[in-house]
Specification:
The chain is about 30% helix and about 15% strand. The chain is an alpha+beta fold. The protein has a domain of about 100 residues: Winged helix-like DNA-binding domain superfamily/Winged helix DNA-binding domain (Arc Repressor Mutant, subunit A, Orthogonal Bundle). Helix 2 crosses helix 3 and helix 3 crosses helix 4. The termini are far apart. The chain binds zinc ion. The site of zinc ion (ZN) has 6 residues, from loops.
């Protein structure tokens, strides 16, 4: 974990983000420190836009290009990881430990799972390859939306005997 909540850079005066950045080989400029303050204060997921607005709320002048460059640098130095939901929907995660996510399509919230799936017994790998890693994002929606319009083959669709129920019964 990189975020400072449980790290060693917390003193009586608060987290020492400059020390945290330096420990990861990042020169602590005022803009990088501002990004660190809004993203690395605890385990959280923020888009580049969200980081920018939070930095601006701190009365720091910063461009989106600078935010992207800083996030790219933080990622390269192991300060954040990146979770891609789909092209154009990317979150930066201050929890750099391997973990899976739930993504709520209704709220846009990305939630850490309590564990991580493994490839063992799930997928046969292509011949001549070995796994480097796996990050799963499970898409979820609110109960209200699910009850109103269950996706094809979903548990609710099967229980209610809707037309979406698959006709093939596994042996
Ligand atoms: Zn996460």
């Amino acid at each position: 974990m990189v975020y400072v909540e449980k790290g060693s850079d917390v003193s009586d005066t608060g987290p020492d983000y400059a020390a945290l950045l330096q420990r990861h080989g990042v020169r602590p400029t005022s803009q990088r420190l501002a990004v660190a303050r809004v993203l690395l204060d605890k385990a959280r997921h923020l888009s580049a836009d969200q980081v920018m607005w939070r930095v601006k709320r701190e009365r720091q002048c910063v461009s989106l290009a600078t935010i992207y460059n800083t996030l790219k640098l933080f990622r390269r130095r192991g300060l954040v990881s990146m979770v891609v939901i789909e092209p154009g929907k990317v979150y930066y995660d201050s929890n750099t430990e391997p973990h899976d996510h739930f993504y709520n399509e209704d709220t846009g919230e990305l939630i850490d799972s309590s564990g991580q799936m493994t490839l063992r017994g799930v997928y046969p790998l292509p011949v001549g390859t070995k796994p480097l890693g796996m990050n799963v994002v499970v898409r979820v929606c609110s109960h209200a939306r699910f009850r109103k319009n269950p996706p094809e083959g979903s548990e609710t669709a099967l229980l209610e005997g809707s037309e979406a129920a698959p006709t093939h019964v596994p042996e």
